[in-house]
What does this fold into?
Amino acid sequence: NFQTCRLVASISHIMAAFSQLGPSQGALSAKVGEAIEAGEKFVEIFYETFDRRRQLIAGLYSDVSFVVWNGHTKSGAVDISTFYQSLPGSEHSLLSYDCQPVADNQGQTTVLVSCEGVVKFDGHSNDQELFSQNFLLTKQGDVWKIGSDCFRFLDQL
It folds into this structure.
């Protein structure tokens, strides 16, 4: 669709610009590419799991992960999973998302994923609610885990 084509064109343009930079910028280009790839896959997996296979959501978090969900704070994969499973069924539709690498001083690969969209919860009004959700993903070996997850409902201006 048009939005996907625009996103791919934008990503291609950004990657081409980074490839024109010097050798030290080549590493940055690789990190941007890795962040984009990880973020795109993550967004698809996270919302599919949350909406249709929530019982598996603990696998996306680690024992040191934390969530702030509209003011409710949970930490650790088990507590986060238990909290999310207590929520009504849902259907998320993303309006936009962005992925970018976060500077690391200790060799840790970290990606910021920012999402905006609408969500409808089972048993609630027919209205969809606007939301914003930000994740910090950390790479642990070959596996990405959510380190931080912050969800907020948004009021329309």
The first strand starts at residue 61 and ends at 69. The first helix runs from residue 2 to 19.
